[in-house]
Amino acid sequence: MFLKFILVVLLFDTACNAIHPLIQPVALTEEDIQNIPMKAAGMVCEDVLFLACQNQFNQYLNISANTDWHNTTYMIEQLDQFYKQDLNSGLFVLCQARSRFERCLGGQYAACLNRLNFVRHNIANSEAYRFVAIFKMLEFECNGGNIQATKNWPCMYSIYASPTYQKAANDCMASYYSATQNQPDRICAAGQTLCKCLELQFTIGCARGILDMRWFECERIRTSFEIDGFCPNISCSTMVFGSAGFVIDPEMVEAHNRIKWDFYDSFANTNRRAKRQVNME
Ligand SMILES: *[C@@H]1O[C@H](CO)[C@@H](O)[C@H](O)[C@H]1NC(C)=O
Ligand SMILES: *[C@@H]1O[C@H](CO)[C@@H](O)[C@H](O)[C@H]1NC(C)=O
Ligand SMILES: *[C@@H]1O[C@H](CO)[C@@H](O)[C@H](O)[C@H]1NC(C)=O
């Protein structure tokens, strides 16, 4: 009985000391960010449209209107609230906001999510990089990784929220930093090692034997390194093909698609209105 009480207190304590931020892009050093060359996007990003879409994103999530590229630390804090145990009030909401954002920018999405777009407005390269990395990570979590995230979320969430993962993340990052210090040509190789290092957290406990969770973590980390096509060599695929753990639940796909299409249907109208408002300004 007493032991049970202690266990409950311990679990409660762990939940209250939840790690913040829970999920974020890889914290590359300023030096590494400077070493990732920028590439121009073919199109122009119209400032008025971009501002309107960022406002819409913030409003949809009910987060502060100050959430944007000026302070990506703040932005990560704001988005962190949506990494919850409950998908419906958490990741799904975040993903819907993301889809709206992409739809809102339409053909300018790639040009707006390009570091040069910010740098031309005198935003620091590091903030520009992090802003782009946040959206690239969300893009993966919500599209490429969504089936995995949805199906295995209770387990994945418990791993991300565990002190063990936090410790591993600190250790893996420390190795990454020491491998790349003054050695920019090592960024991609060290990035691959970082993927492998963090992925290991998804081979134990509830994730044991479910290889797609491991893949999810690797791909999520990879998004931070592939900005502007920088590390095309980082690979996460080898563990997936032929993996017994990679199962797509047809019911889940169908349910997910239904949510997506319902959302797009209702969004089409809102987006047309938003575009008209932008054009009037
Ligand atoms: C935002 O606030 C509105 C109005 O209070 C509410 O209906 C909506 O569910 C909230 N959305 C989120 C994501 O919290
Ligand atoms: C950015 O946001 C963080 C976290 O909220 C805050 O601590 C910091 O002071 C902000 N930086 C600036 C320059 O406003
Ligand atoms: C990428 O892989 C190719 C072929 O294996 C290799 O020649 C090249 O050096 C690698 N590049 C990096 C940046 O690791």
Topology diagram in text:
Blueprint: H1 2-16, H2 30-34, H3 47-61, H4 72-80, H5 91-105, H6 109-112, H7 115-119, H8 125-144, H9 146-160, H10 163-180, H11 187-199, H12 211-225, H13 250-280
Bound molecules: 2-acetamido-2-deoxy-beta-D-glucopyranose (3 copies).
One 2-acetamido-2-deoxy-beta-D-glucopyranose (NAG) is lined by residues 188-189, 233.
- By secondary-structure content and strand pairing, the structural class works out as mainly alpha
- Domain count: the total is 1
Mean of residue pLDDT? Answer: 82
What order do the SSEs take from the amino end to the carboxyl end, as H and E?
A: HHHHHHHHHHHHH
- The Rg value, from CA coordinates, equals 20 Å
Q: How much helical structure, as a percent, in the residues?
A: 55-70%
Q: What amount of the residues lies in strands?
A: under 5%
Bound molecules: 2-acetamido-2-deoxy-beta-D-glucopyranose
Main β-sheet, in a few words?
none
How many strand units?
A: 0
Distance between the termini: 67 Å
The tally of helices reads 13
Uncertain residue ranges: 1-16, 239-250, 274-281
Q: What report would you give on this structure?
A:
- The protein has helices at residues 2-16, 30-34, 47-61, 72-80, 91-105, 109-112, 115-119, 125-144, 146-160, 163-180, 187-199, 211-225, 250-280.
- The chain has 281 residues and is mainly α.
- It has one domain (25-280).
- Helix 5 (91-105) packs across helix 8 (125-144) and helix 5 packs across helix 13.
- The longest helix has 31 residues, at 250-280.
- The protein is globular, with a radius of gyration of 20 Å.
- Keywords: Signal.
- Residues 1-18 form the signal peptide.
